[in-house]
Design brief:
Elements: E1 13-22, E2 25-35, E3 41-42, H1 45-57, E4 69-72, E5 75-78, H2 82-88, E6 96-102, E7 105-110
The structure holds zinc ion.
Zinc ion binds near residues 11, 35, 38 and 40.
């Protein structure tokens, strides 16, 4: 893949090494095609696979999961996986702040 023009804005594409972050963790520096107008960054297939392997290797892959709403007394309970709790460094008894962002999105904020 060797683009010279950005598909988004028509700006000029240059190849450079960019730093890639995933979930707030730095994954490393990789060569990419970057638009000098809108800043769009595109990695080629080989680099994308390399990044995906690294993300899996450091345990940041697949943190999202489906879960069912339960009921405990008069409260509702939403369970999260151990993997996600570990990523968030949650401990039993810890206070978190829970609030809706919309009718379809719930935010759980870890305060530490
Ligand atoms: Zn662009």
């Amino acid at each position: 893949m060797n683009r010279t023009k950005c598909e988004e804005c028509g700006g000029k594409i240059t190849r450079k090494t960019v730093s890639y972050d995933y979930l707030g963790e730095n994954i490393g520096r990789y060569e990419a095609e970057v638009c000098n107008k809108c800043g769009e960054v595109v990695f080629d297939e080989e680099i994308s696979e390399k990044i995906e392997r690294k993300v899996k290797e450091i345990g940041l892959y697949g943190l999202g999961a489906s879960t069912k709403v339960g009921i405990a007394g008069s409260s509702f309970v939403i369970r999260i996986t151990k993997k996600l709790a570990d990523f968030l460094k949650l401990e039993k008894g810890e206070d978190v702040h829970v609030y809706p962002e919309s009718k379809k999105r719930l935010i759980v904020e870890v305060s530490k």
